[in-house]
Design a protein that fits this description.
Blueprint: H1 5-31, H2 36-42, H3 52-61, H4 72-103, H5 109-118, H6 128-137, H7 144-148, H8 155-166, H9 170-178, H10 183-194, H11 196-211, H12 215-220, H13 229-243
Helix pairs in contact: 4-5, 4-8, 4-11, 4-13, 5-8
Amino acid sequence: MKIKPLQLLSHIILILGVLLMVLPIWFSFATSTHDNISIIKEGMQFFLGDSFSVNYNEVLNEKGGWSEEVTAFNMFINSFIMALGIASLKVVISAMSAYALVYFRFKLAVPIFWLIFITLLVPLEVRIFPSYKIVSDLGLTNTYTGLILPLVASATATFFFRQFYRTIPDELLESAKLDGANSWRFFVDFLIPLSKTMLAAMFIFMFVYGYSQYLWPLIMTTDEKYWTVVMGMKIIFTEMVYQRFNPNGEIE
């Protein structure tokens, strides 16, 4: 099978793009397996070093924080639980709400959709204090529920699911009705399999959104055992900046 020049060029461009994204990550990982002296003397490394277990064991398991009990491994677990909960609930709620807006066709479907869409103008940073007040009154501070629940609504995912469902032919719904499928069976047996690509894309997008949250966990948690990776990185950076100053306030 012959490869056309245009296809070959497309593959070359794609390979170069992959290398452009992967190589910096590989350099960072490979360098992290070397000791400090090698990195200071030789700079970034392309090949793996012999300090992998020592470096990563120190980073992941060394206890720190105000109580000297929290570890980076615990922060990773907290971030993963928070991101997984946010992504899963966002995808489920958005898919079901978009399904109701598209297929139930009640009179207020369009106004309700635009009401949901307008919430994009009110991000978490704008409603941070009323959100905290509600969660605090419910006694959900310093809990995974408090970290996850206020962030599960997503106008963006609802919009994309709605646009995707509108592209599905009405004949598919009529065929499902002829086969005796009710609303729930049509959603589970027909729309969900057709939405696998959309579900995966939205899940990845929302997982990254949940994993990178900083302000909400910072306000919601006073217990170190609920710290996330982003919070830990910020604290480490603050300590590094602080250590650069001597008691007189001058940069060393």
